[in-house]
Design goal:
23% strand; 7 helices; alpha+beta; single chain; two-stranded antiparallel ribbon
């Protein structure tokens, strides 16, 4: 379940007003919300790497609901989508351009499994083609320099069973595509498991009869798991202290955030 942005905003305003620390406008709040959400989202990857090492050493709790590594992975599930890439004949490449900017969230953050499907299996005998007219293979992702070396060698040249790909970017008409792939041999279709970045949170409002700002249902909630609500509030308060020039808020928020981090990783 996502974190309600209005709940976070009202909580931040309540804490600031209670302590008579000042006020942050909706535009300032939205800027801080994006910054804090991105910070928390990006932390999942180094944290997951650290927790995985502990997991491999069998030194952490592995019961059903108390496996810290699995809990960290769970927070990324809303951002994981399997999408189809399209072939561009002009640039001889495969790219992902969603029909809607928010169809899968933000832009692609990481590539997972790359599945290339070949409708005609030319690397098998005619008898095998009759029983297996197509083949789907996991594509190895490598650098462009390694791609060029491997494809030039007859011994290591990619095949339909072992295709090879590298990722790059274009600045022309494909500039809206967040990922561009070159694959050898060229498949008939391509499916990629991806991690997308979260969409930008936004607290939007309408003007009431007295000129007051009223929360609009057209707002965008945080995409992070509900368990991150506390971390989001503390993070926003930390930066709010910078805006209103109050070191006390920054110090308290940083101490709270540090303690939460220690508790989660201990």
């Amino acid at each position: 379940m996502a974190v309600n942005i209005n709940t976070v905003y009202q909580t931040v305003l309540y804490i600031l007003n209670k302590e008579q620390r000042g006020y942050i406008s909706p535009s300032e709040f939205n800027s801080l919300s994006k910054l804090v959400q991105d910070e928390i989202f990006q932390s999942y990857f180094p944290d997951g790497n650290q927790l995985n090492r502990v997991n491999q050493n069998n030194t952490q709790n592995d019961t059903e609901f108390f496996n810290v590594y699995e809990n960290n992975r769970y927070k990324l599930y809303p951002f994981e989508h399997e999408v189809s890439f399209n072939y561009d004949t002009t640039y001889d490449c495969w790219n992902f351009s969603p029909t809607s900017p928010t169809a899968y969230g933000g832009t692609i953050r990481l590539l997972g499994s790359i599945l290339a499907t070949y409708n005609s299996n030319v690397n098998t005998t005619s008898a095998q083609v009759k029983t297996n007219p197509f083949i789907t293979s996991i594509t190895q992702l490598t650098s462009k320099s390694d791609f060029n070396k491997i494809t030039r060698s007859k011994l290591t040249a990619p095949s339909q069973q072992h295709p090879l790909a590298y990722q790059y970017s274009l600045t022309d008409t494909l500039s809206s595509s967040s990922v561009v792939l070159n694959i050898s041999p060229k498949p008939d279709s391509l499916t990629v498991n991806c991690i997308f970045e979260p969409t930008t949170p936004s607290w939007n409002s309408t003007v009431g009869s007295l000129g007051q700002l009223l929360f609009s249902e057209n707002s965008n909630n945080f995409q992070l798991d509900i368990s991150e609500q506390y971390n989001i509030i503390v993070g926003i308060l930390k930066y709010a202290g910078v805006i209103i020039n109050d070191p006390a808020i920054i110090q308290v928020a940083e101490q709270e955030a540090q303690q939460v981090s220690i508790n989660e990783k201990s």
